[in-house]
Amino acid sequence: MSELINQIVEKTGIPAEQAQQVLGVVAGFIKQKFPQFGGQIDSVLGTSGDASDKNTGSNILGDLGSKLGF
After folding, report:
1. How far is residue 49's CA from residue 67's CA, in Å, rounded to a whole number?
2. N or C: which end of the chain has fewer CB within 10 A?
3. What is the superkingdom listed in this entry's lineage (predicted)?
């Protein structure tokens, strides 16, 4: 996951902490749309997949989704 965070930081110029949050939101979104791949997503991205990550990601995703009309 750190490799992907570094790429996000390099390409966007946002701080690493924000890049990590973005990655968490994206992972949560993909897991919501494709729950059957949740384990593989956690494995590839190095996310833990525990309840606290899901809750944080879903809250952020929910806020973002509502703003975007999802």
Report:
1. 25
2. C
3. Bacteria
Between CA 70 and CA 65 the distance in angstroms is: 5
Which residues lie closer than 8 Å to 42 by C-beta, 6 or more apart? 27, 48, 49
pLDDT digits (tens, 9 = 90+) for 36-68: 998 998 888 876 654 334 444 444 455 555 555
Q: What is the DSSP letter of 14?
A: -
Q: Where are the domains of the chain?
A: 23-70
Beta-carbon contacts of 43 under 8 Å, excluding residues fewer than 6 positions away, are: none
CA 36-44-46 angle, to 5 degrees, is: 110
